[in-house]
Design brief:
elongated; Outer membrane efflux proteins (OEP); six-stranded mixed sheet; alpha+beta
């Protein structure tokens, strides 16, 4: 016998209790659940696992090569403005606007913040709206629990409702997970600041190297002019019968050698211009590199106290934020050893006909709190805890290493500035003497007092000391750039070392 039958029923959500010795669902006495729920609400403020504390590091009391001075005058933000070069200011603005590595780092920050908000969403219940329609026919020959066959029938069912699920954060698993995600977002922000600082330093260093190369080109072009004039004078002496063919060929060698060095410097300048174009996010063919034959003045900069590096450098801040995230993950791993309390509920309307679906008599609801406790997991939870603790110890070592690297980079830059200043002073004196010696030797050669080899030696010494003087001046400015970068030069009050800025974004 075939037929259609309308049904009304109470629907309860399907609940999986998970691995454990205690599970409560429909049909079990409520007294097993109520004490556990009361205890869960009482202990909801607890969180297993250690609270984060910054590891101790050995901080020097002073710098080796220069005493630490008050930091009020140290540049903040646009630190490259100490060079007082408007062209450099424009290049920095173009790089921060167009550099693709910086844009990628910025989007990584957005990803980390979004993931932190995903983790924060676990604090709240999940509520899902659902609706379905089912129509089916039963078999007339199916096994029957009664001594006579049950005739087949066709049934139709309509349902709309809401399903709610919430995990009581009894042991702080959700809080520790969000804590880890929040610190990772701060780490991504610190990584962005590190990329920004590295970009600013690269732009400044490339631009200063370009200016130094232009100054070398000026020296080489002047040398070319001097040697070309000397070659013409020697040819004239030979025609007058006062010189030899050897002198002519030796002078030709000097002219050709200077030209080769000039072309090498021009190649170097083209490479620097191309690098500057890429840093600014432009194609080298479309980029017009600035030209300048003088280096900007070298400003005096005193370093910060050594201990301030722990707050100013973004790479140190990043290492510490990752360390804090690994610390929170220990709490997540420890929470896996304890019971999980989950509250689920469902409510809505159920009817065999669409016309009766929203009638008050079609309403349904159900509650299903559950508790699960991992009794045996084959050592999985213990292994995860050991892995989290090992990851934390690894992060501690990386953090301390990063601090040591920071101190080393500052010491290297301070030592470079000190010894480059002495080197540059000596080279300036040598260049002045070499220019005078070359002029005297050529006059003596024209007077017939010395041979041409002595002129060549004097002119070669003059060129080398002039180029060395320019290189030394360029290196001084590059060492200052490295010092400002090592000091965390791009630091402002909204750096990742101040968690309030990122936390405010996460709370939006």
């Amino acid at each position: 016998m075939l037929g259609t039958r309308r049904t009304r029923a109470v629907l309860l959500p399907a609940v999986t209790a998970g691995e454990g010795f205690l599970s409560a669902s429909r049909g079990q006495p409520g007294w097993l659940i109520l004490p556990l729920l009361l205890g869960a609400l009482t202990l909801a403020g607890c969180a297993v696992g250690p609270d984060y504390q910054r590891p101790t590091v050995a901080v020097p009391t002073d710098w080796r090569w220069q005493p630490a001075a008050p930091r009020d005058h140290v540049p903040r933000g646009a630190w490259w403005t100490v060079f007082e070069d408007p062209t450099l200011d424009d290049l920095q603005a173009a790089a921060q606007q167009g550099n693709l590595d910086l844009q990628a780092a910025f989007h990584r920050v957005d990803q980390a913040r979004a993931l932190a908000r995903v983790s924060r969403a676990e604090f709240w219940p999940s509520l899902n709206a659902a609706g379905d329609w089912t129509k089916y026919r039963t078999s007339g020959n199916s096994p029957s629990p009664v001594p006579f066959p049950i005739p087949s029938f066709t049934q139709e069912q309509w349902r709309v409702g809401l399903d709610l699920s919430y995990e009581v954060d009894l042991w702080g698993r959700v809080r520790r997970s969000f804590e880890s995600a929040r610190y990772l977002a701060m780490s991504a922000d610190a990584a962005y600041q590190a990329v920004l600082l590295a970009l600013q330093a690269d732009v400044a260093a490339t631009y200063l190297s370009l200016r130094g190369t232009d100054q070398q080109l000026e020296v080489l072009r002047e040398t070319m002019a001097v040697r070309t004039n000397a070659f013409a004078a020697i040819e004239q002496r030979v025609r007058a019968g006062f010189g030899t063919e050897f002198e002519v060929q030796r002078a030709r060698v000097e002219v050709a050698s200077a030209e080769a060095v000039l072309h090498a410097a021009e190649r170097r300048r083209a490479e620097l211009a191309n690098a500057l174009a890429v840093l600014c996010g432009q194609a080298p063919a479309d980029f017009e590199a600035p030209v300048g034959a003088t280096l900007p003045p070298l400003p005096p900069v005193a370093p910060d106290l050594p201990s301030t590096l722990l707050e100013r450098r973004p790479d140190v801040a990043r290492a510490e934020r990752e360390l804090a995230a690994r610390n929170a993950e220990i709490g997540v791993a420890k929470a896996a050893f304890f019971p999980v309390v989950r509250l689920t509920a469902a409510g809505g309307y159920l009817s065999g006909e669409a016309a009766d679906l929203l009638l008050w008599d079609s309403r349904t609801w159900g509650l299903n709190p559950s508790v699960s406790w991992p009794v045996f997991a084959g050592g999985r939870n213990r292994a995860k805890l050991e892995a989290a603790q090992a990851a934390y110890e690894e992060a501690v070592a990386r953090y301390r290493q990063q601090v040591l690297v920071a101190f080393r980079e500052v010491e290297d830059s301070l030592a470079a500035l000190r010894f480059l200043a002495l080197e540059h002073s000596a080279l300036q004196e040598a260049a002045t003497a070499a220019r005078r010696s070359a002029a005297i030797s050529f006059e003596r050669y024209r007077a017939g007092s010395i041979n041409f080899i002595e002129v060549v030696d004097s002119e070669t010494a003059r060129l080398q000391t002039e180029l060395s003087r320019v290189r030394s001046a360029t290196e001084q400015r590059l060492a200052l750039v490295r010092l400002l970068k090592a000091l965390g030069g791009g630091w402002e009050e909204s750096t990742p070392s101040q968690p309030g800025a990122v936390a405010a974004v996460l709370s939006q």
